[in-house]
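Whiteboard transcription, Tuesday session. T.W. wrote the C-alpha cells on the left side:
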C-alpha cells in the first residue's frame, strides 16, 4: 500500500502531496519526481507492481503540464536539487534530496494525506 504525505518547504512555504520517493501500491509503482516542465513535485508511474518492466518512457507524463521531462526526487542522499539545478544534474547523474523545487530549501514531511492501493 502506498502513502501520500504533505511536504512543506521551510523556506518559501511551497507544499506538495506526494509519496516522497519510490512507492508501490497493488497495481503500480511510483516515484516522486520534479517535473522539469512546470517545476512541480509529482508522483509518476514507473511500472506495474508485479512486473520488473517499467512502462514505456513515452507514456510517462506530468499530470499537471503533460511534460515528459523529469528528475527523481526524494532521496535522502546526494547534492541539493531544485528545478533550477535539476537540468544540469541530469548530465552528471546526481540524485536529489528533500529539497524544494522552487527555492532549494529543505522540505519536511508532514501528515499522511492518503493511503493508496
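and on the right, the sequence the group agreed on:
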Amino acid at each position: 500500500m502506498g502513502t501520500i504525505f504533505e511536504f512543506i518547504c521551510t523556506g518559501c512555504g511551497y507544499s506538495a502531496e506526494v509519496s516522497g520517493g519510490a512507492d508501490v501500491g497493488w497495481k503500480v509503482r511510483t516515484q516522486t519526481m520534479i517535473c522539469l516542465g512546470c517545476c512541480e513535485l509529482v508522483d509518476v508511474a514507473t511500472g506495474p507492481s508485479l512486473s520488473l518492466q517499467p512502462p514505456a518512457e513515452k507514456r510517462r507524463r506530468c499530470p499537471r503540464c503533460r511534460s515528459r521531462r523529469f528528475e527523481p526526487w526524494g532521496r535522502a542522499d546526494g547534492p541539493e536539487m531544485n528545478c533550477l539545478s535539476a537540468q544540469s544534474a541530469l548530465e552528471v547523474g546526481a540524485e536529489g534530496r528533500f529539497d524544494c523545487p522552487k527555492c532549494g530549501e529543505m522540505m519536511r514531511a508532514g501528515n499522511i494525506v492518503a493511503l493508496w492501493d
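Someone added at the bottom: Helices lie at 83-92.
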